[in-house]
Inverse folding.
């Protein structure tokens, strides 16, 4: 998607940088401003009106996207990729909100006792105290989204980090020592891969207490096999390079070679794969919570918020109960996928797929 | 010739040995779930408020006092004869029997989803690859990328809201076995299968598109076109066949997600398959049921993946020769 934007415009040759065919910014501006205005109105004035609101939101977002994209390309050249920057902005905002959650002026998100006077199932309306509405206990959905982001991000980032460090270490060792180590690691990796990911999570969810630490550890088991394989494959390639040979000739110990020569080189492809892995793990955590085996209500998580829509046709009668956490989950996964794809194209062109 | 046959046999034997080893490790891990369980299994079975002696008797009856290797041996021994033990919870039903009833539902759903995904993905990928870089291609690529970011349970809830609750075209929360009539069965299975199929379609279409674009640049495609073959003939007869190889690979890679989304979708649609069985049991801490289900799923999963590996040689003579 991101790579198709340049198709229509050939790259300007570096020999003739003068007089760039700058397009006028006005058409972009003319679409972006009304688009943003329509979107702004649609989430305040039209709040809760059903179909008219949905149409207005879609039209407003579409117009502003087209306008901003045109504006960006007029300003920064044809390689400007608005979608990428929107994804970056979304993730930065999400992480910032998750970190600053206790400081933000949001209504109660977890304690039912404090929301006895709040309206239940209030529709999203940016002009009220509940910008994204409330659930059936009157808990504020914005607050639940932000605190849900906290647990979601903490759990999946921790799992990816554990996977990268443990999997990287095991993979480097397997690729460097070969022989029995490699064979043992290979069989154990295959055994981990022999159970489909979600089934592994459910099995662990049966016996483990569902707290953040245990969920992170369970999720890291999903990241582990691919990290091991990737680290091993990269190690096999790097071991034959001159700098490793030079280190060996200088009398460096095995540990030093693995730690100082191999690990830094293996880390980069692992990190770019980690970006894609984060989105997989966010979905896995959401699935587990959706099934009632992950983060337990009333503590919020995107998965258990979406699950609330299953009770008594809540989704059909109050679509925002599902749509608010659903769209958040979608945007986050989408952003991680898009950025991860871009990162992988740039830093790890060799490893197209695993 | 005899020599090459022997080497093929050796490769097969080696693979089979690995397979058995992997299944052995998986079964140990699965069995260890009881020991990971917080609290006493005897309390789970009997419930709270019994005399300590009763719990002790129950533990003895369940063999929990034996050392791990003995218990594992007993469990695997009976598992090999098709006996996966009894559920912890009333009505203490036979695990193997429950799995036998649930498995066909899941297999049917997964197969239907695969077929639907292939039927949708092949034309999409062709259309996209044939107009590579064009507007159609960009829309399809953006669409499939977007679909991949929608978790299956979210997708299922949207489909239920629109097609089952809104339009009322499909039933919800009920299931018709094939014995109730094929039409009713397919009608009940359609929406859940569609939910599973959407993500698979997107993956298949993306990979197949990339593959087809490469193939369409080959000389033999140019030759076919120069002979005046119609685009459809070129796409289906000449370009698709070399890509079947990567579709099989893809099948192997996406199998894990396929199982995962089948499990979730069954839970969502309340269908009596393996997913509902394993999630319901996991929720109640019914460890024997979860163990049995995990073992059966892992066994099938490993076997299917091994079959996929073997089918490479069938499809691509170059690999067959390399092996032989």
């Amino acid at each position: 998607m991101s790579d198709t934007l340049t198709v229509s415009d050939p790259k300007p040759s570096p020999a003739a940088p003068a007089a760039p065919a700058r397009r006028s910014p006005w058409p972009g501006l003319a679409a972006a401003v009304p688009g943003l205005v329509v979107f702004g109105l649609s989430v305040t004035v039209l709040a809760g009106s059903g179909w008219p609101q949905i149409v207005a939101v879609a039209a407003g977002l579409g117009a502003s996207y087209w306008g901003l994209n045109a504006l960006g390309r007029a300003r920064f050249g044809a390689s400007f990729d608005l979608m990428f920057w929107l994804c970056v902005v979304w993730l930065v905002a999400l992480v910032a909100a998750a970190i600053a959650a206790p400081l933000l002026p949001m209504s109660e998100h977890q304690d039912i006792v404090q929301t006895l006077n709040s309206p239940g199932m209030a529709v999203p309306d940016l002009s009220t105290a509940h910008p994204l509405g409330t659930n059936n206990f009157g808990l504020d959905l914005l607050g639940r989204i932000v605190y849900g982001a906290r647990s979601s991000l903490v759990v999946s980032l921790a799992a990816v980090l554990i996977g990268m460090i443990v999997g990287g270490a095991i993979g480097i060792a397997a690729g460097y020592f070969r022989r029995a180590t490699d064979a043992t690691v290979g069989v154990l990796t295959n055994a981990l891969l022999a159970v489909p990911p979600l089934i592994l999570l459910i099995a662990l969810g049966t016996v483990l207490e569902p707290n953040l630490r245990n969920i992170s550890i369970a999720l890291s088991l999903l990241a582990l096999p691919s990290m091991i394989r990737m680290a091993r494959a990269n190690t096999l390639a790097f071991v034959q390079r001159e700098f490793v040979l030079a280190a060996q000739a200088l009398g460096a110990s095995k540990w030093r070679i693995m730690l100082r020569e191999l690990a830094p080189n293996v880390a980069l492809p692992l990190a770019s794969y980690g970006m894609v892995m984060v989105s997989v793990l966010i979905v896995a955590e959401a699935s587990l919570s959706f099934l009632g085996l992950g983060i337990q209500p009333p503590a919020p998580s995107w998965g258990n918020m979406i699950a609330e829509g299953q009770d008594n046709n809540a989704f059909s009668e109050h679509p925002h109960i599902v749509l608010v956490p659903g769209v958040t989950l979608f945007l986050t996964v989408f952003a991680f996928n898009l950025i991860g794809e871009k990162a992988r194209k740039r830093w790890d062109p060799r490893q197209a797929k695993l | 010739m005899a020599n090459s046959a022997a080497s093929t046999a050796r490769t097969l034997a080696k693979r089979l040995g690995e397979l058995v080893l992997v299944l052995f490790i998986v079964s140990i891990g699965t069995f260890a779930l009881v020991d990971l369980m917080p609290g006493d299994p005897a309390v789970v079975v009997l419930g709270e408020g019994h005399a300590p002696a009763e719990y002790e008797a129950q533990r003895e009856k369940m063999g929990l006092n034996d050392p791990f290797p003995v218990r594992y041996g007993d469990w695997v021994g009976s598992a090999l004869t098709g006996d996966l033990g009894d559920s912890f919870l009333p009505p203490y039903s036979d695990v193997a029997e429950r799995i036998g009833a649930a498995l066909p539902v899941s297999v049917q759903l997964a197969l239907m989803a695969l077929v639907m995904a292939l039927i949708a993905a092949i034309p999409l990928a062709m259309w996209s690859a044939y107009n590579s870089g064009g507007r159609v291609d960009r829309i399809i690529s953006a669409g499939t990328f977007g679909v991949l970011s929608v978790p299956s349970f979210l997708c299922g809830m949207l489909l239920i809201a629109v097609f089952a609750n809104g339009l009322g075209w499909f039933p919800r929360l009920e299931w018709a076995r094939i014995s109730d009539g094929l039409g009713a069965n397919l009608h009940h299975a359609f929406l859940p299968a569609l939910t599973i199929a959407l993500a698979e379609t997107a993956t298949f279409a993306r990979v197949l598109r990339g593959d087809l674009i490469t193939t369409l640049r080959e000389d033999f495609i140019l030759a076919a076109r120069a002979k005046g073959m119609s685009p459809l003939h070129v796409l289906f007869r000449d370009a698709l066949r070399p890509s079947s190889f990567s579709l099989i690979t893809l099948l192997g890679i996406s199998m894990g997600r396929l199982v995962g989304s089948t499990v979730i979708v069954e839970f969502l649609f309340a269908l009596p398959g393996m997913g509902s069985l394993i999630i319901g049991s996991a929720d109640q801490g019914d460890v024997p049921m979860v163990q049995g289900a995990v073992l059966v799923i892992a066994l099938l999963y490993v076997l299917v993946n091994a079959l996929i590996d073997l089918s490479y040689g069938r499809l691509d003579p170059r690999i067959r020769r390399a092996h032989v």
